[in-house]
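Comment thread on ticket #2218

A.B. wrote:
> Attaching the input chain for the structure job we discussed in standup.
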Amino acid sequence: METKKIAALEIWNNKRYVDATLSFMDAIIGRLDIPRYHSFRFVVGEILKQRMENAYPDNRGKINIEIYLKDTFFEVSIRDKGIPGWSDFSYDKERIASDKQDLRNYILGACVDGVGMEKLGREGQRIYVRLRTKNPIQFKRPQPYKPMEVLDTNISIRPVVTQEDIIEAIRCIYSEYGYSYSYERLYYVDSFKQLIEEKEIMSFLAVNEHGQIAGHFALTFSEQYKNMPEISNAVIRKEFRGLGLLARFIDYCIKIAKEQNFRALMGQPVAFHPMSQKALLKAGFTATSLLMSYIGSDLESEYNKNDERLDLCACVRIIDSNAYSKVYAPRELECWLHKIYDRLGWQYDFCDDFKLADSTEINIENQDALKITKIMLSEAADDLESILQEAIHNTVRKKNEMIELVISMNSPSCDYGYQIAKKCDFVVAGVIPGGENGDYLIMQMLNGEEFEYDKLVTVGEFEELKEDIIDLISKQSGEESL
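C.D. wrote:
> Ran it. Output below, let me know if you need it in another format.
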């Protein structure tokens, strides 16, 4: 279901209008008896008061309230053209017991299903608050993992359909990660079922002729990389390893992608597991990125036993042979990007008519579970540096460990965004091409530390990609020392 605006209201920045605005929202949303609506209403009111105080100090200005219906969420957007308020709702977790502002912002975030901030260029900025419209998820823990005696190795693949299938998929995930997997919704029957029904994932089980579950994998969909799902949650039970199941999982996903007319597929193997890297490369995927320190150190699995953040590789296979991209690649990255795009085997043109945007368009989102700040840059203007510095400052305050900056390469301002990001000490991580929404340059920053490329165990194109990225970073360091 596409995002649909169902109501809009324009008011002046006068606190007397807050109650009237909330009553307007009640008429649209409150009558639907949505769970946790009262806490959601409280958060919207607090944000509205904050913007009225801070957006136009001592001046009169307009604030726009818009209500959207998006899939299973209601979203209330508070938009204005006043002073940016990136730090209005940030907090330091270690100070919430002593600082009222930090405690207030922490409580606000806990009362809703999502809060984000977005800079809209000439349209100013907006803060959006989201609320799930379905009943709260009933958290049901699966039974612990138990070793089994393998009765046969004739494996077939079937989609996850029933509640019993979901329970078996959860047990597979538990067998690998315990209860530390970063995507918590996959641990509970109701939320797992919801993900399938809402087409956020396609989930599959590998089963032998005796009905024993050998493994699980999924295709995960995202708005950012539209029509390019990721092969994810691939877990093979220890008793069934060595049978080439991972390669079968990948081939099955390619088959589904062709049947469903997906534009591309993405894979993200861990960066020190050569077998999964080889399997994806053999299946026609192209190495495109190294996502350093991407998963938090508290993940419990056989891949992460040294209390360090986990590194991932990223690779893409183009499914639609007619796919085409018009790309504004940063000048100094063109040779490297040509190599990646040529390997992908699709149609593209690099453009060199670079120009600065009239205003910056950017989205900043904190992902507490991963301890990551994700920044999506659509258009870059001359105020970008101050915006990035503010985002870095807020990341430090929130004790997030890594920042991922995603720059649209379909904007003529891409080169400027890249240069400013370098100035702010971001380094190149790679590129994610193939999605319907466009192609993205990925840059990263690890707060207070440098990325450790020497610990990676990579093969084939991933090893070559690592050497290319190290070379790019080395050149960047040389430029800064001049």
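A.B. wrote:
> Thanks. Noting for the ticket: The two ends are 52 Å apart (CA to CA).
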